[in-house]
Every structure is written in C-alpha cells, then in structure tokens.
Specification:
Blueprint lengths: L1 H13 L21 H13 L4 E6 L1 H13 L5 E5 L5 H10 L2 E5 L4 H9 L4 E7 L11 H11 L5 E4 L18 E5 L9 E6 L1 H9 L10 H14 L15
Parallel strand pairs: 2-3, 2-4, 4-5, 5-6
Antiparallel strand pairs: 1-7, 6-7
Length: 246
C-alpha cells in the first residue's frame, strides 16, 4: 500500500490534473526525441524505484532485456549467468548476439568469486530475480552485491519479470545497473517493456529507438502508469515470489 501511495504521489508531481485525463501525445517531439508524455511517465517510474532513469521499450520484457543486452554487452563476449536453463526468449537474444553464457551456481558465493577473479573476459552478469529452477533460493541482493564488490565496473543486469511489486526491492535498488521487466505482467499494455537504471546506459538504449515508429506512444505510457497503480494491490501465492523470499 505504501508503494502505491508513493507511485500516486510521483504521478501527481510530474503530471497535472488535466494531463491525467488525456491520452498523451504521439510521435517524436523535437529536441526530446520521444512523446513528452512518455518521458514524463518514464520519470515517474524511475522515481518510484529510486533510479536515475527509465526507458519504455517495444517487445515487452523480452524487448527490455534484448535492448539492455545490446546496450551493455558486446557481441561475441561472455556473460555470467546462473547455472540453470536460460529463459527461451533470452536465449534467442544471446545466440543472435553471439554471447556465450558462463554458468555459475548463484547459491555458491565461492564459485561466483572464482568466476569473477578468473581470467575469463566477462562483459556482464545477468541475474534473474525469480526462480529459474524449483529448488532455487539464492539471495539475489547478495549475488548482486558480491559481483559489484569484486568487479565494480562489470554491468549487472537483472530480469525482474514476475518480481516487481511482489518484492521489497528490485534489482536496481540492490545495486544492479539495469532492471528489466514487462508492463503487461503489471496490468499494463501488451508489448511494452520497462528498463530502469543508470542514465548513461538508458541513454544507449534510447539510441536504438530513434524513429517515431519505435517509440512507446503517450497513451501507452499512460496505461503503463495506470496498470502500476492497480498492480500494487495484487497478491499472489508463495510460488510466484522471488527467490529471496522462498
């Protein structure tokens, strides 16, 4: 409930009363590069999750992760992942970019340390907040903290799908560089993804969405916010909670 109040407060700080009753603008605003309503909505979401910046993307959670990997991990490089089956849509992105997963058991801090301190030229780490296997129960906040402590410059990306609004803190609030999730899983419009995190990395993602047709339009951004307001009240059983809560 407190998160819902914070969200509504953020909305009222960035939108006036009449704007809340509109569907927003379309296209590319000169000098801004996106619909102004979309940028306002992104600012609200960034504030809600204590992050410097946010960008809405096409392609739902899959698109959010894909754009994030494109902006942080070079093609043909190595990516640290948990030793478990990789989510199929993420696997497609890794294969298309020629990224090789380096599997480590995230339940084992010593194994994580060995991988980070090895000669492997890692270019990023991917941490999924929800379980990838039924027996997963690693503390994602501890995993993120360990990675950033040993390799502060290594970009940490979190897949926050199914965890947002169900855990106290998402990836970026635990020290990750970028968090990715789908608005559709939070009662938002189909096909819209959300990326939250460091301003420089968010700016790189924006470069992939320079055309008017690739922009998330104002009415879609407004629906993302409306969905988030209602999603704060959703409740699921323990099977849907993130690994840290298991």
């Amino acid at each position: 409930m407190q998160m819902q109040f914070r969200l509504v407060d953020a909305i009222t700080r960035h939108f006036n009363g009449s704007a809340l009753l509109t569907q927003g603008d379309l296209g590319v605003v000169p000098g801004l590069g996106v619909p102004s309503t979309t940028r306002q909505a992104e600012t609200v979401i960034a504030d809600l999750f204590d992050a410097p910046a946010c960008v809405l993307t096409r392609g739902a959670g899959t698109g959010a992760i894909r754009f994030t990997l494109m902006s942080t991990v070079p093609s043909g490089s190595l990516l640290l992942v948990h030793r478990a089956p990789i989510y199929e849509t993420t696997k497609v992105t890794l294969e298309s970019m020629g990224i090789t997963p380096v599997e480590v058991d995230y339940h084992d801090p010593e194994a994580i340390a060995q991988a980070l301190q090895s000669d492997l030229p890692l270019h990023g780490a991917l941490v999924q907040l929800t379980r990838k296997k039924p027996d997963d129960c690693y503390d994602y906040a501890a995993v993120i903290s360990q990675i950033k402590t040993v390799c502060p410059a290594l970009p940490v990306i979190t897949d926050d799908n199914y965890a947002v609004c169900k855990v106290a803190q998402i990836g970026v609030q635990c020290g990750a560089d970028l968090s990715c999730f789908s608005s559709f899983k939070l009662l938002g419009p189909e096909g819209i993804g959300v990326v939250i995190g460091q301003s420089e990395l968010i700016a790189r993602i924006r470069t992939f969405q320079y055309s008017g047709g690739s922009q998330v339009q104002g009415h879609e951004a407004m629906d993302v916010l409306r969905g988030l307001v209602y999603a704060q009240r959703r409740r699921y059983g323990a099977a849907y909670f993130a690994a840290v809560d298991c």
